[in-house]
Amino acid sequence: MSLSRREFLGLGAVVLASGPLGTSLYEPHEVVVSQVDIALNRLPSEFDGLRVAQLSDIHFNSFVTASHLEKVIELSNSHKPDLVMITGDFVTTGHTRDRKASAELAWPCAQVLRKIAAPLGCFAVLGNHDYQTNANVVVEALSTGAHIHVLRNQAIALERAGARLWLAGIDNVTVFRAKPDLALRDVPKQECTIVAVHEPDIADEVRKFPVDFQMSGHSHGGQVRLPGIGAIYLPPWARKYPMGHYQIGDLQLYTNRGVGVIGVPMRFLCPPELSVFTLRKQT
Fold first, then answer.
1. Dist CA 218 CA 201 (whole Å)
2. What's the domain count of the chain?
């Protein structure tokens, strides 16, 4: 079973009209924490045990309120991550008729995100909705309002006791801004590299580069999954690797189900997710 995006949005209209049914199926406060060990051959021993929390697809609007997001941040902080990565879609296209007004919702979102606690900082890449509203507004809100470093086809080195671990952000695939070669241009090929990119299915291209681990979102896990069938709708660039942990050649990929919702204001058999990765030196 597979729905088009138009049919999926039509289902959302039916759910909204159903009133209590829609409310009962959407469980915004039941965020599942997925704790995953990621064993990497090239990880420097100095970074063994590094904890990375991943959030994705917040879609800050009437369905993901400030109080809801605050609880998610409290949950993330309770796991004491060393750094936090947010893999795009802070806002939602079409939340209002004015796309720039939709982008402005990144400011109240940033006011909550500034409560993130991570000694190595918080980083982000942009999603397709961030671009389809106003990417510059979103970036300004995140950088000045929450001190989040947005990586747009660029990489930075984390240093510890003389060793380096690279963190690269590939820009959005859906709107044709992704440039893996540019993002990884300054990264020494022999050094361990983690990539964040909104859309998971670009992993088939990322695997051609010396990258060890990719974090993505975009899919929402399908949001609505039926027993024996699975997701009834998945967006482009999230149909091959829709959720969970994958091994793709030498590359590991994790696709996060996201925090928020879009189209259909509910989730079914697909709860929102906070991922907490512990990086391990593989021996």
1. 10
2. 1
pLDDT (tens place) for every residue of the chain, 283 residues total: 555 555 545 555 444 444 444 444 555 568 999 999 999 999 999 999 999 999 999 999 878 999 999 999 999 999 999 999 999 999 999 766 688 899 999 999 999 999 999 999 999 999 999 999 999 999 999 999 999 999 999 999 999 999 999 999 999 999 999 999 999 999 999 999 999 999 999 999 999 999 999 999 999 999 999 999 999 999 999 999 999 999 999 999 999 999 999 988 888 999 999 999 999 999 8
31 DSSP assignment: P
Range of 175's domain? Answer: 5-281
Length, in residues, of the chain = 283
What's the rounded Cα separation, in Å, for the pair 8 and 56?
A: 21
Residues in CB range of 100: below 8 A, 6 or more apart: 133, 134, 137
Residue 199, domain CATH: 3.60.21.10
Nearest-angstrom CA–CA distance, 211 and 181: 11
For the chain, helix (H) and strand (E) counts, in that order, are 9, 14
Angle at 255 between CA 254 and CA 258, to 5 degrees: 135
